[in-house]
What does this fold into?
Amino acid sequence: EIDRVNAWAMEHTREWYGEKTESQPHFASALAAAWGGEPQAEEELQKVVKDETLSAMARASALAHLVPYQNEESNAVAKAALKDAEPLVRFAALSYFEEQINALAAGIREADEEAIRADREADETERALAGMELQNPQSKTFIQQRIGQIRQRATQARQQAAQASEYLERVAEYPAPLLNDPMRLVRSEAGRVLAPVDGRLLN
It folds into this structure.
């Protein structure tokens, strides 16, 4: 019985992760490097993702561990993976861009909220100033300057939101085609990942 279980495990390990060859380090070494925070981990993970001789499961696992490495090199690997022939690899590539999309969407919300708060504060200060009878002109000038500073804060927040929206649009362009992926599971995951994106940006 034990031999039968071992044979089953070996067969499915080969099916899921592919055959290990002597000329090529097993993908597990790349995952171990990532778990250990080793400096070469990112490069090893990228090699696994790009190696089409490895199983889809192995390459998808490497993609999942690339998520913390948000830089130009890993971006390129993840973008290519979105067009991979293997549905599991495309599915895993979406998680890489989910990190960016969520961070940008959160930044836009925070900037919009800051702009609203600043506008409200400036309006309230203006109303308060209108109801004051200030004898000292310098006091009125000081309050007006303060209102100007608050308005400027609102303007800067709106500019930050606009810049983040532009970048979010560019990032969303990469996974957006997977909304029409032939595999239902990939389409569903693409819809979930892109949910924080304004629908107008995807048109």
